[in-house]
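Continuing the batch. This is chain 6 of the set; chains 1 through 5 are on the previous pages. Same settings as before, nothing changed between runs. Recording input and output for traceability.
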Amino acid sequence: MTETALHTAEGALAAHAPFDFSHTLRFMDHFTPAEGDQTLSAQGFTKAVILGDGPVAFHITAADAGVRYRLFSPSPLDDALVAQAEDRITFFLSLPDDLTPFYAIARDDDAFTPVMESWYGYHQVKFITPFENAAWAILSARNSIPAAWTLKARLIEACGATLTVAGTTYAAFPTPTTLADAGSARLRQWIGAEQRARYLAAAAEAFSGADEGWLRSADYDAVKDWLLAITGIGEWAAAFVLIRGLGRTERLEAPEDRLIRAASTLYGRALTRRDVQQIAERYGAYKGYWAHYIRAEAETW
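Output for chain 6:
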């Protein structure tokens, strides 16, 4: 469909203060799994996701109390589709997160306070969907980032969706239903690894029947157990999806080596995995935010 035939809609979404959209863009500029999926400028970004039966692109800029959006779709943007887009953007950018208690704890942590000040007002940018997060965990496990991105691009080319806005084509990652319908045999053809294809098919099957609202808000252990029941999702991948795909920051169960190294640099001593978890304990329901801020800051070192 030509760009002139696209349907559009505009609106604004509130963020819980403090909120600094410049840090949203700053993080997205260093977020490797999304490279090539979006365009960034000093004013905003544009990205696409599959909603309903097709792709919807959204252009996001700062607003006085949050963000403004403009949607682009080949299908009419009725109230239901706009509501889906607003929910996806709101959750993706963690707009409702109240960081005030997190910052109060951070001010009593001399080593971490400079990181908090550097990212003050940054609300976690998640993966655009929890399924894409799970898929990235599978594609990147025991794999280089460039190789994982090549596999992701193959999946998008095979059964994702694209939309051209202002002369730029945006790709949206396939839905879990699409990949589940494809099956492990076709996935193996696309990504060339039998075990990885089997794991991805299992994740697609699970997420295609999942209630995302339940995943976002249900008891933490229940959601963790649901993730661990998926073939190919282990402790690390489950923790990854819980924090970065679902915003479940209340625990930090599987600190990866990169976080341990960054925290060791920040706190001025060699830390073990247990040390990192003990420091995180003081942050209560914001353990995941503490870890996320450290990772984000480490990207700028």
